[in-house]
Amino acid sequence: MSNSNQISLAILPETVEQSKQFYAQASAILAPSLVNLTPEESKELPKMGDKSYAFVTKALEYLKVPGTPMPPYVNVAEMEVDLKGYDTIRQILQSVMPTIDMLQDTMLLSGSEAYVAALAYYNYIKGAAKAGVPGAQTIYDDLSARFPGRPIKKDE
Fold first, then answer.
1. What is the Cα–Cα distance from 78 to 76, expressed in whole angstroms?
2. Shortest CA distance to 50 belongs to which of 100, 94, 113, 9?
3. pTM score of the predicted model
4. CA 65 to CA 133: how far, in whole Å?
5. Integer-rounded Cα radius of gyration of the chain
6. Hey, which of 9, 118, 130, 147 has its CA 20 to 30 A from 95?
């Protein structure tokens, strides 16, 4: 990626506030129907992707055919409710994910440009400190704390 400035983001505070209120309202509307799993719980659950979705849908179709062999421990009605719930959440996610993706991309680009500029300044101040420019050493010492794995060489 080049050093050119690709973004100069300035979202008006009222736009930020409106967006936060909008998403807070959407969250409040959905919250009674949603769950919040721990990372451990999430890790342990079997995941349903596109291929699994086709499998589950086909299995449900078979289970609904009269006379199909069926284990007594499979609750077909609950399986259908779960699949409809999955479909509903998927529809909501499909509508918000493009915005989430753009928010993440925009944050990544803005942060990257700021970080690259800070690194350029850091390298400049590092050289200034080595050259004995007044005040540069203090700034360099403060900023170098970001890179703790590299020992600072001091002349004895």
1. 5
2. 94
3. 0.73
4. 83
5. 27
6. 9
What is the tens place of the pLDDT at every residue in 26-83? 999 999 999 999 999 999 999 999 999 999 999 999 999 999 999 999 999 999 999 9
Count how many Cα atoms sit within 13 Å of the Cα of residue 85 in the half-sphere of its side chain. 11
- Please give the structure tokens belonging to residue 42: 């999430």
Residue 102: which residues within 8 A CB-CB, separation 6 or more?
none
Q: What is the DSSP string of 4-70?
A: S--------HHHHHHHHHHHHHHHHHHGGG-----HHHHHHSPP--HHHHHHHHHHHHHHTSTT---
First to last CA, the chain: 41
